[in-house]
Amino acid sequence: MLTDRRRALAFLLAGVIALGVCTGASAQALYDRFIQAVTLDKTEDVRAMLARGMDPNTVDPNGDPVLLVAARSGWEKTSAILLSGGAKVDAKNRFGDRPLMVAALNGHLAIVKLLFTRGAELNPPGWTPLIYAATNGHIEVMRYLIEAGADVNAESPNGTTALMMAVRGANADDAGRPRRRRQSSQRKRRDCARMGSARRLRRDRENAPPRRREELAVPREPSGRRPGRSSPRR
């Protein structure tokens, strides 16, 4: 009798363990699908998995909240679905970046507007969305943030301001232009030289005697033999 009970208990424990393994595998698969859906802007899949109970504040394997992932990529609809599902509008990653900051950094004006209307903070301590927008020269985003109340004098932890980042970006563009012009001029000079050589060769060939004309038409090898001719037999 005791042996039967032990067998039944062991069988029950094995079932519980197997059920736990299956449940864990299913949860991992659902997590992977959710992260993929957000990353690839599969809005209907995101909506369906939120309805099944997926946490809208889930973080990806890099530690980025899914709303930040969508905002950084420019997925406006996915961002709206996550916000409607309860995502925290100012959720931060391990570096302190927020959805509004990465949207501003990449110039996604529509998402910047969406996040601001949902209550995203314009002037968080440290790096701000305006400084991020100025870093890449996104003028329309900068204009919107300033009109919305962003502090133009806010400083980052290293003392950087939006104006400093904008000026640095402008100087980088100006520094690159002369080099591009020089490279373009060099290419034009090379092309002109090649065209001039071709014209001179054609003119010389037309004005040369028949024998000389043939020599100009067929290039010679360094040894003086014409290409394709074998060495004379000895």
Commentary on this structure:
By secondary structure, the chain is mostly helical. It has 2 domains: 28-160, Ankyrin repeat-containing domain (Serine Threonine Protein Phosphatase 5, Tetratricopeptide repeat), CATH 1.25.40; 180-214. The protein is built from 10 helices and no strands. The chain has helices at 2-39, 43-51, 66-73, 76-84, 99-105, 109-117, 129-135, 139-148, 162-207, 210-217. Helix 2 (43-51) runs parallel beside helix 4 (76-84) and helix 7 (129-135) packs parallel to helix 9. It is flat, with a radius of gyration of 34 Å. 24% of the residues are buried.
What features would you highlight for this structure?
234 residues; 2 domains
Question: What's the quick description here?
Answer:
This protein is an all-alpha fold and 234 residues long.
CATH-defined fold name of the largest domain: Serine Threonine Protein Phosphatase 5, Tetratricopeptide repeat
Number of domains: 2
Task: Report the principal-axis shape.
Answer: flat
Q: How many angstroms does the end-to-end distance come to?
A: 110 Å
Would you tell me the structural class of the helices and strands?
A: mainly alpha
Number of strands: 0
What is the subunit organization of this protein? single chain
Q: Supply the CATH superfamily name of the largest domain.
A: Ankyrin repeat-containing domain
Total DSSP helices: 10
Low-confidence stretches: 14-22, 174-178, 220-234
Largest sheet: none
- Overall mean pLDDT score? 79
CATH architecture of the largest domain: Alpha Horseshoe
Strand content: under 5%
Task: Specify the CATH class of the largest domain.
Answer: Mainly Alpha
- Spell out the helices and strands N to C: HHHHHHHHHH
Helix percentage: 55-70%
What's the alpha carbon Rg, rounded to whole Å?
34 Å
